[in-house]
TrEMBL record:
Keywords: Amino-acid biosynthesis, NAD, Oxidoreductase, Serine biosynthesis
Lineage top rank: taxon: Bacteria
NCBIfam families: PRK11790.1
Name of the protein this chain belongs to: D-3-phosphoglycerate dehydrogenase
Function: Catalyzes the reversible oxidation of 3-phospho-D-glycerate to 3-phosphonooxypyruvate, the first step of the phosphorylated L-serine biosynthesis pathway. Also catalyzes the reversible oxidation of 2-hydroxyglutarate to 2-oxoglutarate.
Gene Ontology biological process terms in this record: L-serine biosynthetic process
Keyword Oxidoreductase recorded: yes
E.C. no: 1.1.1.399, 1.1.1.95
């Protein structure tokens, strides 16, 4: 029986879907460090994680049985994607499932910070009646600067306009502006213009340190800053300095450079205790609706990969959308993308008298993925010949 290890308190749908597919599931609530993860992956074919578990090259090297990883979140920077691809380990994520949840949290925080609800709430809990409009503003007419105009940034753009905000954005890629949003060609011009800056970029290593002293200094006096993206993008000390000095009127931070592994662990940050600052424990996508959808979506991708070899929406392998073909045996050959591989595969099959009933090929960068349907189970000689090809990364059979 195939085994799956699910970490970080994934939605029960994930366990139910994999169990129904005949997979033995070990579900745990917290993240694991590298040595713990290596031990836990012995004999495991599927790994499900969220953002805290780091799947390094060393982990992958010590997990020869691993077939696929499901990142039950948007980001995949916690996984060594190149090393996983080089071992034929498919990685799937949930690029769309929690976008609405993140957007709604960002909007709620923009309203709360602009109205200084954090300070009013704190004062009233302390028994102080502070009925004043000082420092409180409507979001209507304010200028929202979005850094990163992907699935989250673009949806936030539309909803912010509906609230009456003017929207500008900066993205390193060419993106179609939605509604009346204005595209800025550089980050500096966006910072000069916006009253509110919010980060929604991906976790690639090149984005580390994206926002620091120079960027905070460039922001307009009295503006607001949000980071619901990645903790390592922002210099937390510089953010603190600009809040304390009064240059920034407020901030909301959902992600941190170092986050506790488990619920209930102590949290440390230079941003604790600051006025008009909202700190949340990486819950941008943590709504019941989003987690249910993520659990269903990613587990479904893992199940489909196990049953058919389908790599649709894989972030590291060539994508092939494959359906079951009853009555046939399926051979999946992941290989280095060099000329002549397909011809060699077909020659080996022909030399052993194997008829091809269907075949699909796709490539991504240095890898190629060819899936061949044949009438019956292949002999050991055929498999040995295919595995002996110098271009072969891994060979798997389905059906």
């Amino acid at each position: 029986m195939l085994k799956a290890l699910l970490l970080e308190n994934l939605h029960p749908h994930a366990e139910a879907i994999l169990s129904a597919a005949g997979v033995e599931v070990d579900a745990r609530s917290g993240a694991l460090d590298e040595s713990e993860l290596i031990d836990a992956l012995s004999g495991v074919q599927l790994l499900g994680i969220r953002s805290k578990t780091q799947v390094s090259e060393q982990v992958l090297e010590k997990a020869p049985d691993l077939l696929a990883i499901g990142a039950f979140c948007i980001g995949t920077n916690q996984i060594d994607l190149v090393s996983a691809a080089g071992r034929g380990v498919a990685v799937f994520n949930a690029p769309f499932s929690n976008t609405r949840s993140v957007v709604e949290l960002a909007l709620a925080e923009i309203v709360a910070l602009t109205r200084r609800l954090t300070d009013k709430n704190k004062a009233l809990h302390e028994g102080v009646w502070d009925k004043s409009a000082e420092g409180s503003h409507e979001v209507r007419g304010r200028r929202l600067g979005i850094v990163g105009y992907g699935n989250i940034g673009s949806q936030l753009s539309v909803l912010a306009e509906a609230l009456g905000m003017s929207v500008g954005f900066y993205d390193t890629a060419e993106k179609l502006a939605l509604g009346n949003a204005r595209r800025y060609s550089n980050l500096e011009d966006l910072l000069d213009w916006a009253d509110v800056i919010t980060l929604h970029v991906d976790g690639r290593s090149g984005n580390a340190g994206l926002f620091g002293e120079a960027q905070f200094k460039r922001m307009r006096p009295g503006s607001i800053f949000l980071n619901l993206s990645r903790g390592f993008l922002v210099d937390q000390e510089a953010l603190r300095d600009h809040i304390v000095s009064g240059h920034l009127a407020g901030a909301a931070v959902d992600v941190f450079p170092h986050e506790p592994k488990r619920r209930g662990d102590e949290f440390h940050s230079d941003l604790r205790g600051l006025p008009n600052v909202i700190l949340t424990p990486h819950i941008g996508g943590s709504t019941e609706e989003a987690q249910e959808d993520i659990g269903r979506f990613v587990a479904g991708k893992l199940r489909s990969f196990l049953e058919t070899g389908s790599t649709t929406l894989s972030v590291n392998l060539p994508p092939l959308n494959l359906e079951p073909t009853p009555g046939t045996h399926r051979l999946a050959h992941l290989h280095r993308n060099t000329p002549g591989v397909l011809a060699t595969v077909n020659r080996i099959l022909a030399e052993h008298g194997v008829n091809i009933e269907g075949q699909l090929l796709n490539t991504r960068g240095e890898l190629g993925y060819v899936v061949t349907d044949v009438p019956g189970v292949l002999s050991d000689d055929v498999l040995a010949a295919l595995e002996a090809m110098p271009e072969t990364v891994c060979l798997r059979q389905f059906g």
